[in-house]
Every structure is written in C-alpha cells, then in structure tokens.
Design goal:
mainly alpha; 69% helix
Length: 86
C-alpha cells in the first residue's frame, strides 16, 4: 500500500484528536509530525513486514489484507479489539 497523501494524513490526525487519543501537551503540529513519521515508517518497513509473514499468507493475501492483519494485531495489543474468545 502506498503512503498516505497529505490530505489523508490530515484526516488521520484530525480523527486521532476527535477520538480523544491525543496527549494533552501535544499540539496539532506535533501530532501531524507524529502521523507523518508513522506513515513514513510504515512505508520504509513494508518490505520487512511482508517478508516476516509466513510464505503461505504472504503469497495469498492482498496488500490490503496484510495491512488489515497488522491493524488487527495492533488493535488487539492495545485493548481496542474485542474478540469472541475474550
């Protein structure tokens, strides 16, 4: 998946603020810089992430499915993804 456009990055940091996730001492410019840094990191490390996936999944899954799997794992790790198993 390609890096986000400037408009997509703005939407991401705005949503992060609306969701109440922004630390109180962080201003909009600092949050924008953090969103940019994360998106740049994802772009830089996409190949390493892809290679870390088991071959069967890596070859069968689309880029969107691979990104969604990463999202699921991260959301579960931070307690935001509830599962039927608990």
């Amino acid at each position: 998946m390609a890096a986000m456009s400037t408009a997509e990055r703005v939407r991401a940091w705005a949503q992060f603020q609306r969701d109440g996730n922004c630390p109180g001492a962080i201003g909009k410019a600092d949050l924008q810089a953090a969103v940019d840094a994360v998106d740049d990191w994802v772009e830089t490390n996409a190949v390493a992430y892809n290679l870390a996936l088991p071959l069967a999944f890596r070859t069968a899954a689309t880029a969107a499915q691979k990104a969604l799997l990463l999202t699921y794992v991260l959301e579960r790790r931070n307690g935001r993804l509830a599962t039927a198993e608990g």
